[in-house]
Amino acid sequence: MVEIIGKVLGKRYEIIEKIGEGGMAVVYKARCRLLNRYVAVKILRDELTTDEEFINKFRHESQAAASLSHPNIVGIYDVGVEDDIHYIVMEYIKGKTLKDIIKEKGKLGPEETINYAMQIAEAIGHAHKNHIVHRDIKPHNIMVTDDGRIKVTDFGIARAATSATMTNTSSVIGSVHYFSPEQARGKFTDEKSDIYSLGIVMYEMITGKVPFEGESPISVALKHVEEEITPPSEIDHSIPKNIEYIIMKAAKRDQAGRYKNTEELLEDLRKVKYSDEDLHFTEDTNRFDSETIILPPVGENGDEDEEKKKKEPKKKLKKKPKDKKGNKKAVFLGILLAFLLVNGIAFGILKLKDGFMSREVKVPDLMGMQEEMAKEKIEEMDLEFVVKERKYSSEFKEGEIMWQSEDPGKTVKKGYSVEVIVSKGDKKVKVPDFTGKDIGEISFLLEEAGLQEGVVDYSYSDSVPKNIVMSQSIESGTEVKEGSKINLVVSKGPEIRTTTMPKLIGLKENEAKRGIVAKGLVVGNIRYEVSNSVERGIVLWQSYDQGTQLQQNTSVDLVISSGPPKKPKEEEKKELPKDEKDQNEKKPGGGKKPGEGEENGSGHGGEGSGEEGEGSGSGSGGEGSGEGETNTQREQQ
């Protein structure tokens, strides 16, 4: 993505800083110059701008979300495209994501969980009334303001719930830990999919963890499809049953078993918050240890016969005289029968109790015990040892019991099944290849891989672009403990190296060029100028003064001397050609015309040889002597 900080979009929104990012877009804090307020600007990633499908989804997000107006939904202010930058302008929320709050606190209390759940339900309920299904409800997409108000955001994959999309089976997008089973299968999704995801969010709020973990996103998705979530009270016994009931119903695997809509869900949430009314639970008959008691059908010594008797017309009977003695006897027999019945039952109960007591044992403490040892201990007590599942754990070593279905010391009958979860030790994950990735993507990629960011160092590179990961501390493909930290080295781009400008003036041209290259500089333009004082090929001028600090690869221009100027043509004409001079020298008188000796030197000088005649011009031909020396010098030259 091009440098965006400081850019003004739509001649209105000045980008200030990056505040978040997701798979589709990066979110920036910006200032609206028109209204002088802060806004959030979501910008589609560069690599997606060429993908028509993603662009259409991005546009649909803005249109769908802009149609919603609710205090618990992030407002949409503007949409635009500029220089291939697709953006949405949204309400700026000062706060944290619900995911961050859960991480900070570990888990939330019942009251806080209910408060947040009600606001989330209000938000998605408003969207449902406008025929919009969010389809990506998760703590990462839920903002919590500083005053505790919920703001649901990121309708990145929201779809209008029209007849055209009710049968849509396109690829499922979002976080797999909060998927509904139908989303995981790529099947029909509706408002109940959002309710399921909200149930998972509530589960994480109250327990501090998601219900399903797996070695890969696919394995987690399969658990959503094939398994019911574990009741929260099995993780934390202090969790209220009413809240557990809501979570279990909202996150039912079968859509038909969930709340029909958010209104039903809100009704139960309000009951929990504002009244002590118990919600209606379905009793789990497997939790009772006693043997099955077969009750007689109604009518066999039951109350229904009494009702029938009351309805039957009374027969007219002849009145018999009252027998007082008979009445007293009947009363006595009734009391005796009742006494015998009560004592007989009591005696029977005592006998049964003795029989049951002889068959009961106390569950031992298996926590932290190795699986084989725990199994032996359970079987010695005539109990059944059942491994419910094996889970990764950073707290328990591989093979240790990390959970048991019954508390230590609980009395159960012999033959009772005690379920356990056995630790698989630290979860191992494979380290992805982060090299070549932008540092802005790393946080998301690390989280997806189950890893953490370690130390990030920055280093110059001539070959790797700025902000791209060059190396990682653990090689890709290596299996490491989940949560391990990965150190990264990120490119700062080419290093800006400087050098000192050397002195080149006075050097020969080739020496000056070598001096430029040796300093990491580049030879620039070279001009040649006439100089009466500096010989040919010597540097007269350099474009930067000696001692100047320059970036490497800077071009340095030079001016080189071409020597003194050429002689004018008039002076060249005064000199005779060499051949003509040679002919004159062979003539009597040193090649002088008649009378020239008298004019320029003595006549005697002309009688000797050319050199002697010109060289002996003394006496009355003194002037001729001077002329003779000049000519000799020219010839030598």
From TrEMBL:
Region (Disordered): 292-323, 556-637
Ranges of biased composition (kind: Basic and acidic residues): 567-596
Top-level taxonomic group: Bacteria
Pfam short name (any one): Pkinase
Annotated positions binding ATP: K42
Record-annotated PASTA domain positions: 357-424, 425-492, 495-562
Compositional bias segments (type: Gly residues): 615-627
Spans through the membrane: 330-350
Protein kinase domain boundaries: 13-270
Catalytic activity: L-threonyl-[protein] + ATP = O-phospho-L-threonyl-[protein] + ADP + H(+); L-seryl-[protein] + ATP = O-phospho-L-seryl-[protein] + ADP + H(+)
Primary enzyme class: transferase
SUPFAM superfamilies: Penicillin-binding protein 2x (pbp-2x), c-terminal domain, Protein kinase-like (PK-like)
Keyword Transmembrane helix: yes
GO molecular function: ATP binding; protein serine/threonine kinase activity
Coiled coil: none
Keywords: ATP-binding, Kinase, Membrane, Nucleotide-binding, Serine/threonine-protein kinase, Transferase, Transmembrane, Transmembrane helix
The protein's Enzyme Commission number: 2.7.11.1
Basic residues bias (residue ranges): 311-323
NCBIfam families assigned: PknB_PASTA_kin
Name of the featured protein: non-specific serine/threonine protein kinase
Classification lineage: Bacteria, Bacillati, Bacillota, Tissierellia, Tissierellales
Gene field: pknB
